[in-house]
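Still learning. Show one?

>
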Amino acid sequence: MTEIPDNWRLRCPLPDMDIKSGRRDPDSKKYSNSFLEVLALRKFFTEESIEDFLNPQIKSLHDPYLLSGMEKGVKRIIQAISNKEKISVFGDYDADGIISSVLIYNFLRKLGIDTDIYIPDRFEEGYDLSLDYIRQVTEKKKYDLIISVDCGTNNHDVQQFLRDEPGGPDVIVCDHHNASFKECPDDENYIIINPKLPGCTYPYKFLSGAGVSFKFIIGVLRKLGDNKKTYFDKDYLSSLLDLIAISTIADVMPLNGENRILVKKGLERINKTKNKGLKTLIETAIGNNPNINEYDIGFIIAPRLNAAGRMKNAMDSFNLLSAEDKDFASIAIKLENFNKKRQNLQAEILEEIMGSYDLEEIADSKRIFIAYSRKWSEGVLGIVASEIVKRFNIPAILFREKEGKLKGSGRSTPGFDLYGNLLGLNTLFEKFGGHRQACGISMDIKLFDDFSKRFSNIAKEKIRREDLREKYEYDMLQKFTDIDMRFIEELELLRPYGESNPKPVFITSDCIIKQLDFLKGEKHLKMTLEKDGINFKGLIFNIDSRKKEIIKKKQMIQILYSLQLNVWKGSKSIQLIIKDIY
């Protein structure tokens, strides 16, 4: 066999004996041997584990009371409901934060609770439950209770203020972001529900913000009196799953464990959604599609929900999903226009960066790109940073400068823990939070040079030159003779694909090139490949000069690819989506 390039990495290496001995029944006719091998490589060996993964059930969700803070949080809100206290929901301006806000707001409104909503302005206020906001509502004695969703875990200044100032509101936090502290404060007036809290024994750590809010709703429903439970339809909890699926995909959460259950069941419900605003958005953005999938959510629906907060204010997206009697069509069109403006702005900033900086040289010398500008819009900096990561395989942190302050977003490669490496520099930041591959930072511009120099040194120390080369992961070597319609249909059972559950990728060597057709001015390539007497059509999108050179020189190539069912004018055929060749 041809040597495998060193930038093609086996996704989940297991000894052959583990795969073969781990199978529940090597002679089973239920699944093909190739599909059983794909499952084994994902560590599903037994009949029970395979069926649990392929057919996840709602009953497998964990008890919400295993979450730290759940008991206290439920007790506090039951008290607020009984006393008819004034409550405000405080959210975030991204899709997960908006949906989290919608879930809690609608839940309380169904109970007849006097509830307000507050989503901060990205440009004027920034992310998270702010001290200014808490001071204002405390001074006005506006609320008895604030429920902070998709934010609030690390607001130490807010917590200290509420301890020091009597008469402020109590706070319940439903969040999923990493905690910046090692010991969870025992506070009756600032209750944090978050699977990532230190010492929390909840079995699954990767719920979205909306997933935590959903768990909170379940916890409250369990403790409500029977008279209050009559306010909700029998399928009320199930009817929320479409929104939770969107939040989970939009926030790029792992699609395993509980998230797989929530997303798979949510996608099953989305075409018959009871949410009028969501239904209108789908009709406007996608049209009449009976099979909405994770791609449609991640690349069509979520960007439109995010666009309002990126370009202006997230309340348009909130109103679309929360209201019962709104002009949904006009809001959906507004989000469509916001999204187009966002795309144009993103392209302008990226073009400016590409024209002003030698990113290839920066990648080689610094291993990270850090920059700021007064002209850049902070609403799209995270997406632009993602594009730089994708093109140059280095982390990127971009800031907007305003009145001597920097506010920015960072994105990273899988191999570099952005949040973890930034923790050691957190004394330079006014605000800081995020995940392994994404962060948000606010800081004084006077500290930028120090930050840039120190963090570039960290990146250069931990990111090797060979790490800059684009890498591909594959599941296994595959014979053309084992690829058939049965296998394609089996692979569909693995969906939804996403973080921690990627689409399977295969390698086949010694493929004979039978036919070549360049498409769209040689931007894409369609080819016919033969191996062991079997022919398949293959597509390479955005083919680069290296791949063109290989094809010109060779009649036989090694391919790294995923499989796709191509449907054209009623006929079905198997198609290879080729990611790389050698």
About this structure: The CA atoms of residues 68 and 200 lie 5 Å apart. The two ends are 12 Å apart (CA to CA).
